# Entry
Amino acid sequence: MSEHERQAYAPRPAAPVSRDAPLPSSLSVREARDAYLAENGFDTETYTAETVTLMAFGRTWSFPNRPNRQWAIPLHDLHHVATGFGPDLVGEGEIGAWELAAGCRTPIVYALNATALLVGLFLAPRRMLEAYRAGLRSLALYRQPIAYDALLALDLGTLRARLGLPAEGLATHPRRLHEAAPAQPAATREASASH
# Structure
């Protein structure tokens, strides 16, 4: 990876944001991505790592991080940022439904999204249907010819417009965090538990 690519992928410190609604359209895509990654304990190094480790249902699985996945996962994370869907099981189902309808491009993306959607249909079928319907009116980044660093330079409102999303994003529920997310302050935990 070149130094320019390393800088484009490198997260920058982000101010805390509310998880009650999708991230504000006024943020740059880079700021929004970095806030999403930070609140979930993710980083950009996993985009190009040789292996990837996934946690679900209390289990951990590792597998090779193939080039198609390395290409797709940064764009997938920008879809999370733009829509406001979280990286919990329901949120991954929603993003899977949305991406399937908005346009995938590789077998691994289809397979991962179909798997996430199946889990989501079991947990929150109405939300999966809503996300799929929204995806039918959208165009995923997988189908758009634009460089990743150019996407990071946009403001989030512009990215949403490019994807065919409302200015405020799609999510109607607070973003839940990934199960491996860093501990939250007590006040934040209590507020999110009440939703």
